[in-house]
Amino acid sequence: MKEETPTLTALLFGPDQKGLVAKTSGWIFACEANILHADQHTDLEEGIFFQRIVWQPRPGTDIERHLEAFHAFIQELGMQAELARSDVLPKVGVLVSKISHCFHDFMLRWKSGEFLCEVPLVISNHADLADEAAAYGVPFHHVPVAAATKAEAEARQIALLQEAGVDFVIMARYMQVLSADFLNTVGCPVINIHHSFLPAFAGAKPYHQAFARGVKLIGATAHYATAVLDDGPIIQQDVARVNHRHAVQDLVRKGRDLEKVVFAQAIRWHLEHRVLAYGNKTVVFD
User: Fold this and answer.
1) Three-state secondary structure along 159-199?
2) Is the pLDDT of residue 205 over 90?
3) What are the structural domains of the chain?
4) Of 105, 167, 181, 230, which one is the catalytic site residue?
5) Which of 12, 52, 60 lies closest to 33 in space, CA to CA?
């Protein structure tokens, strides 16, 4: 059932200054709206203020004009804002290869209603998961990727994602490195799940690297993809203990459980507009 008056969420950030909490809440109060949740954080070293506010305008409010007015108000304060409304579902594009556990975990959570979003397409560099995507009722696009044709393949992927109007992309163990051109052109955030506790064991075969090093902890990291491999702002991480009795296959098995949970949490926070990325860090309003 569609809400009569949607709730609105703002993620704000900018130079710290006195009175920001009072000013933002005062503006919402002056519009006769009701604040449902508010949280803030200040990076004292960088002097940056962050805030997440959720509010519901009074019935009959023209939502688009209300958001435009709020955005203009925030600009007057020297702040930047990311704004979202609860009656508009984000569209998520899915990139996947052959390894399917994160793909199935995301799709099942979405189908069960845990993730409030639309999934307009799945793109893969292999055809292996075409039938599975069809079973979920989502269009599947096979775009092969080879070294000699990578630029053309990425251009095709970008075209598909933009035609679908996606708001962000998830790499559900998509085993290709996205180029800087892709990330600069696609026009939306990209969330990756990496199967190690970054910054340890970046790159290929991290479980094999961990086994060779004899670590006692393995992990998984969900982060925003950047042009530097496995170096983007981290959204969520978790770890599991291992010991000398665990073979590489055991690390892979334990790690896949971590990957699903960490990836799902990062996607959930992003869908709920709880994550602000700045520099190489994030503020997560959990």
Assistant:
1) HHHHHHCCCEEEECCCCCCCCHHHHHHCCCCEEEEECCCCC
2) no
3) 8-85 (3.30.70.260), 91-284 (3.40.50.170)
4) 230
5) 60
Residue the block writes with tokens 């969330």: 191
Strand partners, 33: none
Instruction: Report whether 190 contacts 168 (CB < 8 A).
Output: yes
Instruction: Convert the pLDDT of each residue in 105-161 to its tens digit.
Output: 999 999 999 999 999 999 999 999 999 999 999 999 999 999 999 999 999 999 999
Instruction: Round to whole Å and give the CA distance between 37 and 124.
Output: 39
Catalytic residue list contains 257 = no
Q: Are 271 and 228 within 8 A, CB to CB? A: no
Residue 159: what residue type?
A: A
Query: What are the tokens at 200?
Result: 């340890």
What b-and-e string marks burial along 209-220, b requiring 16 or more CB atoms within 10 Å of the CB? Answer: ebbeeebeebbb
The beta strands (E) that lie in 33-117 are given as: 34-43, 48-56, 80-85, 91-96
